[in-house]
Amino acid sequence: MSPNTLAVATEQNPAAAASASTVNTAVNAPAPKKDGKEKALSVTEHLLSIAEVAAKYSVSVNEAKPQDSQGLTAAEAAKRLAENGPNMLTPPKKRHWILRFLDILMGLFNVMLLVSGIFCYILLGINYSANYQNTYLGAILIGVGFMNAFIEFYQQQKSAAILESFLNLIPTQCYVIRDGQTIQISAKELVLGDVVVIRSGDKIPADLLVIGSTELKVDNSSLTGEADPQERSKRNSHHNPLEATNLAFNGTLAVVGNGYGIVIRTGDNTVIGQIASLTSNEERRESPLSVEIDTFVKLIAGVAGVTAIIFFIIAMTVKSQGISNSLNFAIGTFVSFVPEGLPATVTMLLTFAAARMAKRQVLCKDLQGVETLGAITLLATDKTGTLTRNQMTLTFVWTGLKLYFAQNLAEGSHEAQIASPFAMNDSAAATSLSMSPPSIPLPSSLHSRDPSQLKLPNYETAQDQYPKVFEIPFNSSNKWAMTIHKKKHATGSLMLYIKGAPERVLKLCSTIHDGQKAVPLTAQHNAQFDEMYTLFASKGHRVLAFACLALPESEFPENFEFSKDPHGVREAVGKCRAAGVRVMMVTGDHPLTAEAIGRKINMMLTDTKPMIAKKRGIPESQVPEEDVNAIVIHGDSIDHLTDAEWENIFDKEEIIFARTSPKHKLDIVKRAQGRGHIVGVTGDGVNDSPALKKADLGIAMNISGSDVSKEAAAMILLDDNFASTVSGIEEGRLIFQNLKKSVQYTITHTMPEVWANLLYIILSLPLPLSSILILVVDLGFELFIALSYAFDVSENPAGLMKLPPRKPVTPESIERLHRRRALDRAETGGDVEAVHEEAKDQSSKFSKMIRSLKKPFTKRYWIEAFEKTEDEVLIDGDVLSYAYIEAGTIQTLGCLTCYFFAMWYHRSITPYEAVNFGANWGSDGNDYTFNGRTVTVSDQNDALAYGQSAYYLALMFQQCFNHFICKARLSNPWGSFMFQNKWSFAGVFGGGIFSLLIVYIPGINVAFLTNWRLTPYTWLVAMAWGLFLYLYAIVRVLIKRRFAPIKYTDDIPGLQMFPTRWSTGGK
Description:
By secondary structure, this protein is of the alpha+beta class. 46% of the residues lie in helices and 14% in strands. The strands form 6 sheets. The protein has an 8-stranded mixed beta sheet, sandwiched between helices. A hairpin with a 2-residue loop joins strand 4 and strand 5. This is Cation-transporting P-type ATPase N-terminal domain-containing protein.
């Protein structure tokens, strides 16, 4: 349906959009002092008279005429500024970039690489000629450690830089009265007692006591959750400071009117500063992905270290190897166990995913947050729509195909020559701008050239005269706002009005008003529109277009009930619930209002206990708890809930918390985490920031969000659209699947590398794969192929969002969590919190590391490690079994086959010879004779070069087959999805070319001791083993699907899943 009347207007100096929130706050939160201690502050000035406040802050004010106040003297203001410091929020403590880089570099994985590299150079110093390859090996190991750290550090810095561009913790300029003069100063220079001039559109620069006002209204939504602007004057009858009508708070917006106020709080002592201090006291838990990778790295480090030590001792004692050879072997074994490219692979995959999420309007400050969003089990939100407000000053109007100006223009200017003065008694302007059909006359009573006083007739009573029956607020995705009002016209009783970005509104229109009537929109009209739009835009004005549509009575009778899905919230919530994510509302609204909204947006579908009791005609106390699946909790009762009552609440699927404060929201998050939930929290106000910081994933709003909330959050919705959260969950789940594929692929090559070293000691086999070739595997073709998983499409897009959360909260998981906490209390003497607090302390990192190292040597660690759970972790038993036992063994056999084939094909050396004479293979004076044939040391070294080249290429060819096998996690390893990622083929091609260059380019192969004469027949042998691996994987998957089918979430009856223009991308 297209609106059929179009008009365009422009404005200058729009006020910043106000934040919106629905949670109340308190003002008695602790505020940080300079020395780091905390003190309780309370606001009482609103209970005092203006004279008493003026006396308290020693400032001269004129209560009758605030504009004639003397204010502070410049000298006194400078003195107070020196005493109390600047009026600004203390920025969050930031660790120096060098220390942050060192933190990453000192991660266990990178430390293993650095230590291995250092040992290489120690060996080089012991025996240079025998260990000259360690020159390259040590440099590569140390370089990889720094490279891994740099990649992660760079991504962190990049995200931080983007966030900085969004933050502006305090307005830069404000007007104050000092020495009787109104002057403009930096808001940082405000001091207690200053008299501040408040103008429409200003952001309040400090907490103020209003001493005079003219129709002043402020937007308090970022602090109190009140959606409507609140009147402010010097009169007050409220005791609660946040309800006081004579206080204006730092960070809020003056949306209408003007006034004057005395500064009573600055910087961290303001209400916004006190709430921000709550945020600094909260710590976010490590992400599930971080914990799982850390656990895997510790496991690999332990296995690699123990294996290297054991075989170092065997080499020294049983095999009588010298210390140089034994240590070389130990380093090789250690390096073969460690997938050197894994950290870079994981970081890059998350980076690519973060870039895709940014295109979907989701900014990740922390790369781990990309996957955390896909892992959340509970999403607490108070956000069901975005409302932006702007103050506009009218400058030009183009209506009825004519241009009008609404401000004084210089005589002789181009605009004055082509435009007419705007007057509401101009019949053409009045008719077209009235946004009414031509048959409805508009009273022409107002003629004003003062843009500050220009109003449409009867504006104050328009809402009563023409009641609004439906509204879609403005948002950044559609860039228009629409309302429907009861207003009689020739064909019906309802009128639709729309305003927004001109190009968006124009696309919706099929006709345009020519000053007398609506006529079909033509190319000539479009050209005129573009001309005017260019003129307005070139002058730096913001341009708005207006249109209307008379709704016919036959289709839209007066009592027609419209429905809407703001920003696709209803479908978005439905998708979350269908994906097994519990969506919970935490709001400052009245419980009845909150419940009504929840029932419109799929958040609450079943009956609460009062509703069930009413239907059954029984008291609420007689309704069994197991019959209740929905509950609404009033904030007043939260502080008095027992542990059992909290458990009962979270046992429900549909939960709404109403009339909550920031402390309540924080408590709710902690309680949910205490049950094992991975909690996501959305919010935009300052009052949301403590919960955003504590949640596993805090999600702030970019447009309406406060600076404090953006700083506290781990993720920012750039378009303030709740539906973007669902896109993020889907992307997070996809990246987890792709990460799992990539890790499974990457660690599969570990066993061929490990067995190459173990067989060197166990069977005295000439070393099939050198340490430097192992690094070329891990950092060469493996990186090419592993990174391509980042671009894999979903095997089953519908099934991806039907999978349960990978760490579901079930009765079994809750019981297991309680049992483990009981053990924690027993081990710590009941003081679990002390351990958690110690973990936050930088000075206790060493003791934390010691405890972490002790854990693998305890019985409890291994019991819990092998305890059956419902969780899906990144590296689980299935992945380990496939990579280290099944595929790892097959690939090892394939590599050994190629190794022996190459030695036999080129030098006629049999496996028997390699095993029996391998102990001193290639050593000086170790020529041997077998079956009448003498094999010199030179022949041995040449044969080994062929064998190692074949082993290396065989691993590469088999991994190419394995790459496609690992794509199938939710489906069988065949189908079109396996070939939709063009980067897979680019990775295989690039990795293959890289490997062939290592072997077949003379000069390059000297450093890697490969042989460029290796026969391509070896390739065929490797491909045959790769095909065998593929067939084995097919059988394995079929058996697995038969006995362990994939579990999906159950359908939720009653979900209203109607596609909207937001959920379909506007299609």
